[in-house]
Amino acid sequence: MQENSYLILGVSENATIKEVETAYKNLKEKYKKEYFQEGETGNLAAKMLSKIRVAYADCVNDIQKRNVIGEGSIYEAVDKLVKEGMLKEAQEILDDAEPRDGEWHFAQAHIFYKRNWFLESRMQVEMALTLDPDNAKYLNTLEILKRQQYKIDDEQKSQRQARAGYAPPRETGGAMGNGLCSYCATCLLCNAICYFCI
Fold it and tell me: What dihedral angle (degrees, nearest 10) is formed by the CA atoms of 120, 121, 124, 126?
């Protein structure tokens, strides 16, 4: 937020969106009249129009965040937004949250996971564990992410091999395993035995 957006609009910090909108419209009308005047009055009006536009957006955003959080914790609000697919809004709330404890990093991991940023998600869970090493929820989640990463790595390896034209070696009959059919392998073996016998 710039300076104090509520102060710029002349409303209290507990104002509703309706009160913020009314204050914004009144100030906008006032400065639009002065905007076309020459000299310092016109310049000041132009600056104030820009300032109140930013203040209005900041206040509305702040009120919406407060409404989402409501009576619950910040992390409950973030979790709710993530489940609704509102990742940008969840990230904004989380960015403003303090302190950045284990629960904060776990919530960040959840957002990253929903964005399909699996490596970053795992790193955030590991950070949460460094801050709270005995937390069973973090430990279980880390194990799930590790198993998922192994699966993804195997799939990607198979895809790379398929693109490169690599095919796994085929099983060949007989103990020789060098691509000869069993009849040819037997003939070669017999020739070798006969050679030593002569």
Answer: -100
